[in-house]
Every structure is written in C-alpha cells, then in structure tokens.
Amino acid sequence: MADDPMTETQSDLPLLFQPIPLRGITARNRIVSSPMCQYASDDGGPSEWQLVNFGRFAMGGCGIVFTEETAVDARGRKTHECAGIYHDHHVPAYRRITDFIRSLGAVPAIQLGHCGRRASQHGPLKDRAHLTEADAAANRKPWQGLSSSALPATPGGPLPKAMDLDDIRDCLAAWRLAAQRALDAGYELCEIHGAHGYLIHQFLSPLSNLRTDAYGGSLEGRMRFALEVAETVRAVWPADRPLWFRVSAVEGPGGVWGIDETLALARALKERGVDAIDCSSGGVGGDGPLLPVPRVPGFQAGYSSELRRETGLPTVAVGMIREARHAEALLQEGHADFIALARGLMDDPNWPLHAARELGIADPLALLHPRETQRLRQLEQHAREYPAGSSIGIPFGPAEQVSYSWGEGIARRR
To answer: Which end of the chain has fewer CB atoms surrounding its CB within 10 Å, N or C?
Structure first.
C-alpha cells in the first residue's frame, strides 16, 4: 500500500477520506467496518471464515475494520459459535487476522462484550431459539446466563442468575484479561459493547435492573457497572490506543432509556478515558413509552449528532448509510466523525472504492493493494483507448478482421 493513498492534499479530500488521528494511531479514512457477529467460531476462536470475511473489508479500503463482538468469557457468548477471547490460545489465531488487516492499511479493531441474559441460544439461522437439554446430544449444552437481575430476556425465557458482588468482580477481571489478550493479539482499537440488550445494557436499563444495592436504583447506580468496565479496560489498554464505547442511545419499543440518560453516561465515560461513542439503539423493551425506531437511511445519525454536540466526544454514525454523498454530508454538517457500515459492506465490500469514485477522488484505486490496483489500472486504460461506441476490428485469423462497435452485441462473421 502507498503511504499516502490519495493524490490530493488532505485538506482537498472529502472528509470521508481525510485521515483522522486516534490517540497514537491514524486511520486512513473515516469509513468503519462495523462489528458483525459471524457465528462461525470454534470454542470462541476464529477460523478462515473470519480471516476472509474481515480481510475483504480491509482490502476494499475501510479505514477501521472491526472483527466481531467478542465475548470476554465463555459464559458471555450468545451461542456456542460466538467469538470469544477467553483463552490464551485464542491470541495467535486473532493475531493472524489483525496482521492481515494491518498489512492492507486498515486499523484492526475489536469489540469486547458479554451477552448477559441473552446466553444459551441458537444463532439467527435458527431464529435464536433457546438451547434445551435436547441440544446437549448435539454438543450444544445449554447454560445459565448472568444479568443484573433474575429477569428473562424474553417472556417465558430462561432465567439468568442475578449477579452477586463476587460475580461482578469475576466479570470485571474477565474484561481486564480480555483487553490484555486483545492487545497481545494485535488490535489497535478496542470498543466496549454497552448496547443491544447485552450485559452492560441490562445494568443500565431500569426495565432489566431491579437491584436495590449500589449497582441499581438511581441512574448513577445503574451506570456503575458500565463505568467500572470502562475503568477496568482503560487501565490496561495503552494510553496511545483509542477506546470506544457502543451505546443504545434509546432502547427498543416499550423502553424507557433515552437520549438524556445516554448523555449522562457519555459524559461519565469521557471522564474515564473513553475516546468516542458508537451510536446505536434498541435491545431492551417492555411496557414503557418508547416507540420503535424506523429503519431508514441514517436513522441513528441524530443520536450521533446530539451526543457529539452535547459532550464534545467524537461519534460514530451507523445505520443504513448506503450513499457516499449522504455519508459525506453527515461529516460535513458535524453530525459524526466516523461513518460505520455493516450490511452495506456485506453487499459491497468495495464500498470505499466506489464512494471515492462518486466523491471525485483523483485516484480512488490507490485505496487498494497494488496487486489489485495494477490490474484495475489496466482496465481503466483499455476503457480510455477504446471509448464506448469505438469502431474496431476483431481478428479472427491472420488475414481476417471482423468489424465491431463495442456495446452492440458481438463481433460476428457474416
């Protein structure tokens, strides 16, 4: 990869393609491959699937490439196939992936999490059905999840264990070890998953946290576990590496946690060394007043804008942002500092390349590895040599040419 992939000066580039410093590292652009669970791990460890899947986003030109939500301990996985980083032997397996991502010019990033009461499920291909004893015969033994309170994730679902103080201490220790392993595995950016109804969110929401001790009750009490996780990870994550935090800015339908509570959390996280807020939504619901969030392009960008304006923290806008000009406008208008894509990159892993072309970058192919760039430059050269509609001759033999105007069928002998 070229040291400077764009020929324009940085100030001439669209914001989407301007490099951005992150403590001691720099992302080549503001495009983030958002964490996407793959359900393809073996006892937490990654395989060739992860290497290829996440590697393609680095090859396509993303500035930051997250792998997937990665459990800090085995109990914190949703399924037996979920990713984790709770064994030392996981480290070299992830190192293979981070080395590849870095070699392609992207920042390798990890999202650490714990699913809490959302444990012991099948994956989405089986509708996230709860595991039963019948699954044990297929080596899919169910297990009891943990949570802030002994409330099921869904009506009639299995009850988690309400965490006592020893469980909380053990969990914080798991976060610490996972962050250390992530560092050893070569990750340069770490994000704490505090959204989507996972364990941290279960402590934050009064719908899932009925505790009467110091970890429940008031907003400050319900925020305590989230802040202790942030303090724990920041203490072992190097000062020259960024730490992000993903929030559900508002809960799901029937929820009560909203943007004002998220602002309070973000301000407290900023005091504890969190560098950016990744703005998502949903995950906990009930009989509260919150309405569903319509899934339309940029549906969560307003949360990103509010958090950025009110806290001064950089933010990540994510959620059906598919058009390059929309992404650029969100940055130019000050609504976000980064644009994250998930399913959009699955549909088009070369989205950054196509966005660079759409936004008028002088040399968009410089985003790619030279192995690909060389071939694609040839393709562009051929297009310049023979513009659409050019009349040419296609040789059919040493003394025979057939006239052809490309774009009009094929060269055919009369």
So the answer is: C
